[in-house]
Amino acid sequence: MNSIYSDIAVAAPSILLPKSGLDLKKWAVIACDQFTSEPKYWQNVEEEVGSFPSTLRMFLPEVYLECETPEQIDARLSGITSSIRNYIDEGILTEMDPGFILLDRRTKYNASRKGLMLALDLEQYDFTPGNKSRIRATEGTVLSRIPPRVKIRERAPIEMPHIMVLINDPGKTVIEPAFAALSANSESGSPDETVGKLAYDTDLMCEGGHIRGFYTPAGSSVSGNIISALRALLAASEDGFLFAVGDGNHSLATAKKHWENIRGGLSDAEKESHPARFCLVEIVNIHDDGLQFEPIHRVTFGLTKETLLSEAGKYFAGNDLRVVTGNSAFAKEGGSDGSQTILVTNGSEDFTLVIGKPSHTLAVGSLQGFLDSIESDSIHTDYIHGEDSVRSLAAEDKLGFLLPDVSKNSFFETISKEGVFPRKTFSMGEAVEKRYYLEAKKI
Fold this sequence. Notes:
Number of helices: 12
Distance between the termini: 10 Å
Number of strands: 25
Helix content: 25-40%
Low-confidence stretches: none
Shape: globular
Mean pLDDT: 91
């Protein structure tokens, strides 16, 4: 790994991209942890991809984890490893010189959301609540979810990121001016190769919108300005907090654990630059106009309205729980009196849980504690992105819980002071706006 900037926990990676001429619309596929309760979505992806080279052959959609046997999953993993090696051997994946990619994503919800592909130093990442590292988790990490993911990573010669990491850059000093410089250079009559070039420009399947990316090599003026601007953000931070993991907390935790597993067998020199030490991510400015914070909703299977109201009455005894017909109380996080609101739907009717005297500071924390308390062999919860998806799943014995919006204005301050949010509190954008696998890096 070349071009390491240890003071800001960043490296300029050698990014792998598909060779010129490939159908990028078939190549790029949405993150594995999306549409986990909607197998029809993944059937549509299979039909779209067909026999063409695609990242679909390089990862395991989590929708299959609940419906396939361990033997079937193991066969899928073997096929993934084989596909990756074949794509490398056949030249379908080609490695660029160390550098960064500035990207612009357009969806039906937002005209533009800009990002920066770089690698983060896992030695400077810690998911323990309350830590003071450069890179911090934003939600609680479920340790039991890490070992199965590590097994997948151990077998993979490359990584593909669906991790999105936030920076707190209200002055828009890092990504926005770099993107403007690369975009202008690419569109000029004689683009300067020392500055950068257009790396990809494609529509994304299944209503994913459009994405284009501009590559800039390490050592270019644009890359130098990126590093300088990140250093300035760090200098302005009160406690050394530079990067907050927005999407993919468990994926970054998995990368960290994998690195810890292998670093003991390396020399000191190897540890400094080993590719597994650096994880490829997309950096997004929390103040980007195209970045919308969305709550992650819940659908609880095996739960009826009658059982919900009975169990909630017990759990929230003393918390002034009220039930309001319809969704009029769902307009905001809560009232001026400190109450919290949670909209519930069973597909045919809506009603709102109003917690007058909550024990948790966030509605999602109050709800999650309750759902954890009723979890059983017959009742389980899935985490759903997008209100439309929740409503399509809700039925008589499948209740959808729609949570209030999450404010991003005090996001970094909250993490600094209180540690992590409750797990699965927020998502950045709608489900179809999540990262699509397109870039990769050797590990």
